[in-house]
Prior knowledge:
By secondary structure, this protein is α/β, with parallel strands linked by helices. The chain is built from 15 helices and 12 strands. The protein has an 8-stranded parallel beta barrel with strand order 4-5-6-7-8-9-11-12, surrounded by 6 helices.
Amino acid sequence: MHGLAQFVAIAAFAAPAVFAQSAIWGQCGGEGWAGPTTCVSGSTCVESNPYYSQCLPSTATPTQPSEPSNSPSSPSGSGGGTPVSTGIVGQPTGPGLNLAAKKAGKKYFGSATDNPEFTDAAYLKILNDTNEFGQITPGNSMKWDATEPEQNTFTFSGGDQVLDLAEGNGQIVRGHNLVWYNQLPSWVTSGTWTNATLTAAMKNHITNVAGHYKGKVYCWDVVNEPFNDDGTYRTDVFYENIGIEYIAIALQTAREADPNAKLYINEYNIEYAGAKATSLVSLVQSLKAANVPLDGIGVQGHLIVGEVPTDLETQLALYASLGVEVAITELDIHVTDLPTTLPETAALLAQQQEDYQSVITACNNVPGCIGVTIWDYTDKYSWVPSTFSGQGDACPWDANLDIKPAYNGILAGFA
Ligand SMILES: *[C@@H]1O[C@H](CO)[C@@H](O)[C@H](O)[C@H]1NC(C)=O
Ligand SMILES: *[C@@H]1O[C@H](CO)[C@@H](O)[C@H](O)[C@H]1NC(C)=O
């Protein structure tokens, strides 16, 4: 029961900050990086991009797009960061989720988190473990209501706290998000706007927030959830006052504020073909045709156990074919009928394991799918139960911070 916590505690001591050299798979350079710039023996510091260099095994070629690899050998080959099997039934004996993703040629496996959770040391120990998570997304603290609660008054303390944690661990950060219809302060939603005044306010927000984190985040979800499920544009305050041009203006402004951040549009219910997916494809094509900066499509991946879309891989490949990278940005797979299924049956947990494996396999099979983020790793802090009554148990770790069969599904998906 408590084996995992112990296991993680041991792994945490091997975190890069403890040593003068970075561990295998650890960060070893990049803009703003103050940690070690040399790697332990058996690994070499390789630049991934201007803000992230990483210690890669000297013999590996992980920058190649993923060919499924079933090699049973240790991902590191040598070096101190490799956890050993706890030998506890049900506990992972695999290499950790981020290590599995890296071995498969992906950039990261990551988790969302939120500032109130930072008082929970047992939770943080696992979040800090770069064998499990190479990437962090702040669940709330970089959103508009958190960063600009009054017009032109900016507060970055919550976002900075998440960024500092990630930097301390050598984890990359997905900035989330700049323009969204939800979690807006009332001065935005209830303001009296013209096209010109709202465009100026939006640009000021993006310039300040993306400017504050310039060079420090891997990417931004610049526009979040622009479509209704029927494929029409969401008629939020931005659309109503600025028109669909708000999307291009937001992307251009973000590029100017942080030229090195990858710029994403992030959306849900695009895991399968349909009107919403079709509209997104048209939008991406028109933005590309107009030379608007756009680097990625975020496919959120809030799914239901037993209902993973069978065409997910096809959709990921379709988006990647548009000349953008693709990431699964908010994965969780929840149970819809908790009262009758608690405690979950073995069959339900097995189905969830299979579902996680299906999603990871889909990303693994599409070279343009660069990484996967789960929307927090534990049922203890999942957003699902408070949003959808009677639903939940969506994460690979349970509320006691013990792994569930879903964990092994993720490992198997990257194998
Ligand atoms: C988590 O990582 C941060 C940043 O490296 C560190 O300051 C904090 O002490 C760690 N917490 C735990 C519980 O490991
Ligand atoms: C708002 O202004 C922009 C130019 O900044 C223009 O492209 C767009 O069409 C205008 N939107 C509306 C709804 O008039």
